[in-house]
Amino acid sequence: MSQENKYELVVSIVNSGFSENVMAAARAAGAKGGSIIRGRGSANPEAEEFFNISIQPDKEVVICLVPVGIKDEVMKSVYKNCGLSTEGSGIVFSLPVSRTTLE
To answer: Taking Cα atoms as reference points, which of 88, 103, 93 lies closest to residue 55?
Structure first.
């Protein structure tokens, strides 16, 4: 049975110390909140050369469950404020959510 997804999970991975910037940008685009997970990157020197950036090992992962209708705006806002060309050196992607306890 095929259902249209109502929500997307927006995942942002940024340098340590930039998760509040991510949340501010996400909220500005309509997100209500999110969760922050501390992490550590494991990129190799080839990845740094490929992306032409210096990769800081300490990371923060910010996850926000958002309605499908605002997902693109949330992603654009986060990337504009915390993307690879900023000090946060972040990436952002989304994953479809097939079901939640909200339904």
So the answer is: 88
Distance CA 8, CA 81 (A): 20
- Amino acid making up residue 59: K
Question: Which residue did the predictor score with more confidence, 84 or 52?
Answer: 84
* pLDDT band at 2; cut points 50, 70, 90: very low
pTM above 0.70, yes or no: yes
Within 10 angstroms of residue 18's Cβ, the number of other Cβ atoms is 21
Assign 60 to helix, strand or coil: strand
Q: How many helices (H) and strands (E) does the chain have?
A: 3, 4
